[in-house]
Amino acid sequence: MPLPKNNMFFGFADKLTEEQKEYVNSIIDNQFTIVNAPSGTGKTTLAVACSKLLSMELFYIFSPVSERKLGFSPGSIEEKESKYIIPLIDALLEIGEVPEKVIISSDNIENVKNGKAWVKPMSHIFARGINLKGNKFIIIDEAQNFTREELKKILTRIHDDCKVVMIGHDGQCDLDNPNKSGFLPYLKHFKNEPYVKVCKLTQNFRGRLANHADLLKWD
User: Fold this and answer.
1) Rounded CA separation 109/106 (Å)
2) Is the pLDDT of residue 61 over 90?
3) Domain 26-214, CATH homologous superfamily name and number
4) Where are the chain's structural domains?
5) I need a surface site. Which of 118, 122, 126, 160 has the fewest CB within 10 A?
6) How far is residue 21's CA from residue 2's CA, in Å, rounded to a whole number?
7) What is the pLDDT of residues 154-188, one digit of tens each?
8) pTM summary value
């Protein structure tokens, strides 16, 4: 489908690569989009833009890699989580949003009350027992850093009236044992379902240094 231009895509829709257009269209057309792509390809920014485009409340779910480090670090839940939502903040800025106004937090009560806050970041650690339903847009970012059990904990709480974008890169896993990552197992588990599309983004827009660094592989 052609990308709409009467929204935040106006002004840069024509600049998207064919891969990015396919990714955006998948998010709009499917319940569940999975993308396997390196850093700098725009995967998080475009997903956040689609959430805004569709006027859906965004749940941005991340993994702090180590539950113990997050659980025992000082401060409130919001303070503990703040270091892990930099990609979300960068994406909001890229699409012209003010993070301090649109992110739901205890410091942003006025915008929560008037409905202008529409983004809820949360770690999977604090997701146990939640019920994700009611036209929510769910981004699971850096999904390669979730174990199989952690991804199951999130995915089994999502109702069919939600959209989900699972973002990862199988080449940049931060788990002590990358074999425990649930990203590729769940990608393979879902890839043939009729409501799912698997996308790839290959062009890193950060430049030659970042592109060349990403080419180095090791066992």
Assistant:
1) 6
2) yes
3) P-loop containing nucleotide triphosphate hydrolases (3.40.50.300)
4) 26-214
5) 160
6) 9
7) 999 999 999 999 999 998 898 989 999 999 999 99
8) 0.88
